[in-house]
């Protein structure tokens, strides 16, 4: 079969270049044969990676035009409905659904690593009572690298497996401690007789040795974790890959992912949605707020709306809405829900949002659910991080085992001053 190529004619020189197309992409390095600035090779310029594939990946597939999301080929709707969270972790990490015995082994491995070193308690105690939970989480996960110096041996697959288990087992424990820190409550130790989600919920809400688990809310939380588990090359995953490409340990790479997730344009949007709903305050204020978003006077975007890849309804948002129904049937309606529904109704009919293909994303309704479950808004993004963790690790592992991986090191277009002589302090 004839190989595909792109012919580029440099109209400065008349020279014709043939650039191979492989898997629907050209290699940016192939542009280097064309003369760019100052006689060096032509660069491609794409500061926000709008049209640049940064890697090959077999983990997650998204078709943003029609709203498709698949984990290892399985439609998200089926995974969310039928899988457990640890099963989803296994699927993302290993590439296949586990057999019953493989799932038992994997769950046992995770269960036997849920405790954290007691010095982590002291580390967390050093934070102010009002420290943001995401700041605490990224600090604590970075600190974990000092507890497990063996995690530096990233070329050893067995060692990587151990760190993977540690991360998935210990993050809920640390996250629960962070939840209790802000309330001044003593930490509750992991209970390994409970399942993954049940143990996490117990560590957050148990008081005086008692907590009545609500299976509907626990399954709802599990589905939310599954819906967040991976989303290909998003900002935090790219951060994990980029930082991990320096061959640092996985705790440090994951803490970089947590830092990226913290931002309001990424995972922090779930917290920002609630702040926005507070700002709107009343159903009657919704139309004026939408107008203010459009003319820029609101000082915010419509948080929980829009996505770099989805140019139709985010399939996760559809599933989150179903989860909301099951949760609110248990807890009673969140009073902010009416405002959110009205915002969505107006935005989906408004030319501004329609023409820009802005639809509700996964963060639009998730915060309302977390709030109904009893989590404070500053904590929402921590819950997102717990869900996204297996995706970060799967992508980190894929990056490390890809023979094409090199340290991530973008180029730049220099816009500064050309050479000039240094001026001594006394002459300035
Ligand atoms: N509200 C109002 N206008 C918007 C919004 C929004 N939420 N999102 C995009 N736009 C406008 C934007 O102003 C621009 O308009 P114009 O062409 O007139 O300048 C146009 O739509 C394209 O926006 P963009 O910033 O070029 O799009 P992007 O792909 O770079 O950004 C995004 C994607 C998710 C950062 C953005 O849609 C956004 O800021 N949304 C609000 C924050 C949010 O909900 N983030 C969660 C994303 S999903 C889960 C996750 O990743 O954590």
Strand arrangement, largest sheet?
A: 3-4-5
Q: Tell me, rounded to a whole number, the average pLDDT.
A: 95
Ligand kinds? carboxymethyl coenzyme *A
| Count of DSSP H/I helices | 17
Tell me what portion of residues adopts beta-strand conformation: under 5%
- Supply the helix-strand structural class: mainly alpha
What is the CATH architecture assignment of the largest domain? Orthogonal Bundle
Distance between the termini: 67 Å
Number of domains: 2
Q: Which H/E pattern describes the elements?
A: EEEEEHHHHHHHHHHHHHHHHH
The overall strand count is 5
Q: Do you know the CATH topology of the largest domain?
A: Citrate Synthase, domain 1
Q: What name goes with the CATH superfamily of the largest domain?
A: Citrate Synthase, domain 1
Helicity level, as a percent range?
40-55%
Q: Whole-number radius of gyration?
A: 24 Å
- Please identify the top-level CATH class of the largest domain: Mainly Alpha
């Amino acid at each position: 079969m004839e190989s595909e190529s792109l012919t580029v004619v440099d109209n400065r020189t008349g020279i014709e270049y043939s650039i191979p197309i492989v898997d629907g992409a050209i290699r940016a390095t192939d542009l280097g044969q064309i003369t760019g600035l100052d006689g060096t090779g032509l660069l491609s310029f794409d500061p926000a990676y709008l049209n640049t594939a940064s890697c090959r990946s077999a983990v997650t597939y998204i078709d943003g035009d029609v709203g498709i999301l698949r984990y290892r080929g399985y439609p998200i709707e089926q995974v969310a409905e039928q899988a457990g969270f640890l099963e989803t972790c296994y699927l993302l990490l290993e590439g296949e659904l586990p057999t019953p015995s493989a799932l038992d082994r994997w769950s046992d491995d995770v269960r036997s690593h849920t405790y954290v070193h007691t010095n982590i308690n002291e580390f967390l105690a050093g934070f102010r009572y009002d420290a943001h939970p995401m700041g605490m989480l990224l600090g604590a996960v970075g600190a974990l690298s000092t507890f497990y110096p063996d995690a530096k041996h990233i070329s050893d697959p067995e060692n990587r497996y151990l760190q993977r288990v540690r991360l998935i087992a210990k993050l809920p424990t640390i996250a629960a401690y962070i939840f209790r820190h802000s309330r001044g409550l003593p930490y509750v130790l992991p209970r390994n007789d409970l399942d993954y989600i049940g143990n996490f919920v117990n560590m957050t809400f148990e008081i005086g040795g008692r907590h009545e688990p609500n299976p509907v809310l626990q399954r709802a939380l599990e589905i939310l974790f599954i819906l967040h588990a991976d989303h290909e090359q998003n900002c935090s995953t790219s951060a994990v890959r980029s930082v991990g490409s320096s061959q640092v340990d996985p705790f440090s790479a994951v803490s970089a992912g947590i830092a990226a997730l913290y931002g309001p344009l990424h995972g922090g949007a779930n917290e920002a949605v609630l702040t926005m709903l507070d700002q709107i305050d009343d159903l009657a204020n919704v139309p004026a707020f939408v107008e203010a978003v459009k003319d820029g006077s609101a000082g915010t975007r419509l948080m929980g709306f829009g996505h770099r890849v989805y140019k139709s309804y985010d399939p996760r948002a559809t599933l989150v809405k179903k989860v909301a129904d099951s949760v609110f049937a248990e807890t009673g309606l969140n009073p902010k829900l009416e405002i959110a529904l009205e915002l969505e109704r107006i935005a989906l009919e408004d030319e501004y949002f329609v023409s820009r293909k802005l639809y509700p994303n996964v963060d639009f309704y998730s915060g309302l659910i977390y709030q109904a479950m009893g989590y404070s808004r500053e904590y929402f993004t921590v819950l997102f991080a717990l869900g996204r963790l297996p995706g970060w690790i799967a992508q980190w592992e894929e990056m490390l085992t890809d023979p094409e991986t090199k340290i991530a090191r973008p180029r730049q277009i220099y816009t500064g001053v050309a050479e000039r002589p240094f001026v001594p302090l006394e002459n300035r």
